[in-house]
Amino acid sequence: MLNLPVSFTQEIQGNSNNPYQIKASDLDKDFVFAALDVDVSLIEEITGQGGYTARKLKIPAVPSGGTYVLGAITGVLTWISTEEC
To answer: In sequence order, which ranges of the chain are alpha helices (DSSP H)?
Structure first.
């Protein structure tokens, strides 16, 4: 389970004001914490839901058979064949 910096469930339960107002700074903290920082060469910009720009991590297609681990060889992300456990 991901423990975000700001738990809105805890904020609501601990706040007698109804309704609870979400602070933009709390949302920013959670979004920055949850963001995956990836080399831009591995990112492809796509059109996401609602027409907004989204980013997709480019991972090579998974091999159809055998046992593999995802790794990098000379800086290129690739599936590396391994022995079955």
So the answer is: 8-13, 24-34
